[in-house]
Structure formats: C-alpha cells, structure tokens
Amino acid sequence: MLKTAFQNELLFTSTIQKGSTGTDVRRVQEWLCLNALRYPNAALSTSLDSEFGPATKRAVQNFQSLLKMPQTGVVSPDLFNKLSTPLATSFQKQPTGAIRKAVVALAQTHLKQRSAELRTNDAQNLGPWVRSYCDGLDGSLFKWCAGFVQSILDQAASNLGRNFTDIMPRTLSCDVLALSGQKNGRLMPSETVRKNPKQIQPGDLFLLRAHTHGATQPTDWFHTGLITAVSGDTIETIEGNTDTQGGSNGTGVYARVRNIQKTTLDVFSIDGL
Fold this sequence. Notes:
Elements: H1 5-10, H2 23-38, H3 54-66, H4 77-83, H5 85-91, H6 99-112, H7 128-133, H8 145-159, H9 174-184, E1 187-188, H10 190-195, E2 205-209, E3 221-231, E4 234-242, E5 252-259, E6 265-268
Helix pairs in contact: 6-8
Protein name: Peptidoglycan-binding protein
InterPro entries: Peptidoglycan-bd-like (IPR002477), PGBD-like_sf (IPR036365), PGBDSf (IPR036366)
Domain Peptidoglycan binding-like: 21-83
C-alpha cells in the first residue's frame, strides 16, 4: 500500500497504567472512546487528556471486563492490540475478486468496524481512523472523506499489484480529485449521469458539487464517497466524514442512499484501475 499511516496506529510497545502520561495514554483514551461505539452498554468513554487517572483506569477495567480478562487497569501491548482490533481488521483484510468487487467489500468492512472520528471542545476530525486515512494528519482542518475513499482504493488496488495513483493524484482534496477527473476524462458530470444512470458502476466515486446559478465552470466539490450499488435513479454509497443527514463534515463512515436526480453529483470512474 502507498498509504501506510495505519501501521503507526497499530504500534504499541510500552505498558502504561495509572500515573502514566503522554502520547500513548492519549492513544489508549482514543480507543476506549471509539470502542464505546461498539459496546454502547459499557462505560468506556473518557477524557482525551493524555493523563492516566482514575477515570481512564476504570474505563480500561471495564474494557477488560468485556473481554473477561483480569481487571488490572494496566494497558499492555496485548491489550492495546485488542483495543485497536477494528483498525487492524479493516486495513489488513485481503479482498478477493475483481477491483470493483474488492472496493465495495473493503468499504463494507470499514463500515462494519465502526470507523469514526473523535471530537474535543477544541477540535474535530481527530483520532486513529482519521490519521490512517489522512496520512498521519488529523484535526479540524482535515476533512477526511477523500482520504477514506483513497485508502479503500489503495487497499484494493495494492492487493492486485496496482497503484491507485495511476488514475488519480494522491490528495485529501475533493477539488483536486474532481479536477483530475475532468482532465483525464474520468469525471462524468451530474447532467450526463442523470440522463444515463447506467453509466455508473459499483466501485466508482461520487463527488458532490456546489450548485452555483449561472456558473459555466463550477469548481467547488465538497464531499466524496464510494458507490456500492446502482438502482434506477438512486445509488447506494459508503462514505466517510458524514452523518445520518448526509453532511460533509460528520463523525463517521455511513452507508446512504442518494437520489442522483435531486443532487448535483458527479461520478469519477475507476475503469482500468
């Protein structure tokens, strides 16, 4: 794979406990909060303050209890591996079949593992999933929908001995992605897609474009995702950095249904990848 930041998120060689401070404590706190999405009946969420205090210890013990482990409140590399299992499961999956089938299957895996960001009072777009998708970067400036899409394409293509950069530039920008598609003839504008939805195929990308009245060359694309199914005038998608309302700066990976006749939605073809 070209995008390997996820590997850093899985490395953990220390043992930490109450009284510890620093980056490794923050990483444990992040995973406790993310696992709260998977185990909503367990008290796992805690502050992201990089200090292993009594609250973090209690959350660790609660996680250990879920796994029927001794409730020591100590985080070893083995326990961290268990905390970060969703990320490892997603990025280490080996898809089978042709490229489009592989793209859809991998997107579904990330969805099932509850890929999501974290937020604090000061910032959003935080955490190991975001850093994995965004080449080690996170924070409010880094909307991660394009990073999610390219991570899935990278994972699928590399398994077949190919590079996703053969059809698009490596970028976190929807604008850069769309403009490259215009240049290489891969971007089908919304007007064309609406007339012939059969041109869309699972595995293709959609890009939402801001509709500006009277504009002849609109260049404002603000959200992207992967198309998993096509049915008449609707597409099913899996997209990152969205929410239940289909927003462009949400908190997680979601599956959605979108109506191509009611949305200014361009399609980027992955033919030949």
